Amino acid sequence: MDDVVRPEKTPIDPNAKVPAYSWYALGVLVLVYVLNFIDRQILSILANDIKADLGVEDDYLGFLYGTAFAVFYALFGIPLGKLADSWKRVRLMSIGLALWSTMTALSGFAKNASTLTVARIGVGVGEATASPSAYSLISDWFPARLRATALAIYSSGLYIGGGISLLIGGLIVENWNAAYPGGGPYGIVGWQAAFLSVGIPGLLLALWVLTLKEPVRGAIDGLETPEDPEPFRGFLRELFQVIPPFTIFGAAARGSRALFINLAGLAGFAILALVLTQLVPASSTLMNFLGAPGLVSDQWLFLGVGYYAVFSWAMGLKARDLPTFSLTWGSPAFLCVVLGYGMVAFMAYSASYWGAPYAERALGAAKSDLGWFLGAPAAVAGFLGVILGGRMADFLLERRPAGRIWVVLFGLIVPLPFVAIAFTTDNVTIFYIFSFIGNLLIASALGAAAASSQALVLPRMRGMATAIFFLATTLVGLGLGPFMAGYVSAANGDNLSLGVLSTFVAVPFGLALLFTALKLVPEAGASVVERAREAGEAV
Hints:
Blueprint: E1 4-5, H1 20-54, H2 58-65, H3 67-84, H4 89-107, H5 113-127, H6 130-141, H7 144-179, H8 190-199, H9 201-209, E2 214-215, H10 231-242, H11 246-252, H12 256-279, H13 285-289, H14 298-320, H15 322-327, H16 332-362, H17 367-397, H18 403-413, H19 416-422, H20 428-454, H21 462-491, H22 496-501, H23 507-526, H24 528-534
Helix pairs in contact: 1-6, 1-7, 1-8, 1-9, 1-16, 2-3, 2-21, 3-5, 3-10, 3-14, 3-21, 4-5, 4-6, 4-8, 4-9, 6-7, 6-21, 7-8, 7-17, 7-20, 11-12, 11-14, 12-14, 16-17, 16-18, 16-20, 16-21, 16-23, 17-18, 17-20, 18-20, 18-23, 19-20
């Protein structure tokens, strides 16, 4: 049977009813994203156990959750985003799901911080396949009038998975440690058993994903795009352009000027990493394992490599695909949207990750209680917030071209007092209530930001645009936010309250970016095809 859904040979009706299959497929993708964030967020409920068992500090835990995952998630998201634009997205997502589930399970066998870091890197690589594929598929299953809503429903998996992870992780750790006080089979303790328990089911879900049918790219927008006859050529080219040290050879192939710019970027990011290591010294667990203690901290090494790689890739993209570069990196409107949401993510990831460790340490909450009273409500709050935010974004878009940006601004500003109260109270009930409200309000921004970024590019560029969108949420939000909170906490006597509140420094930057986006997005959205043509696109 043909696994491609063929469009009807009739004019596109923007008000046509969405087929039931599209909603079914969206439901499967939500399950994938739920598992994605269970595997990612379960580290929160396990953080204190890992800290005690492996003898690490909060800055390492912030690095492990954020940077170790974020850099490889972001870097591999670029070539995998390209592959999502040219190959079977369903197959790509299934392969990635199997990979990150395997690496999550392998985290359960980690006996030291270095091994856990390597496993976390593998999770990041696998999860990089999910959202570029999903965003592109959803944009081909749903018309523009419902796209923000559909993307918001998909994004609800983030909050459902994050909330469930606390419940699952807490129950597994407490029950395992009660049954095996000295460690179970192969010496596995509670936090290791939790990784195994959430990693293995992903292999079964990967088989279900393989049964989904692939929609025709761009057909729903009347811009049907033929399949790429050589889909892996672009993927390998992007991989070669983004993975150091091959980036140097990629630049050299474009000429001496490109090579000079690339080497200057390499030197600049290397110097920055060394300087930051001196100014903000952090754990060097992996560097110690590699025999280079004290040279550069893991945090700044990883971020330096990540930023240099993205710089190299962006310069290469400009030479290879000027239309895509022009509508993404070359578009001030696009950059203001994705970086503006990156500031929301900077705070959101920090509050989400450090919530459970804070309540456990500062308020004396039990792990099982955190699952029921922090994790489960967070899932509900995130689901409601992202759905309501998505609906509001679509509602406002019908009334003003920059309507979606107002929802992102709402998600940046309004949650602040609720997060501040949650992380300063000494009453655990107040912490639960205000965490719920804060999670609900922060979640409102995601669907609006994602839909805004997709609206600023052509259909063939959606996977790549998604990869760039997630650069902001990972290399800026996830790569810096949780680490900053952990570093400030460790530097001030394990003061997680001060650590989380320190991430509010992102607010002024977010305001500047999003108010600029309010002015730029309407014109940019109305001129996508024209600007693409000016850059050489055959539209």
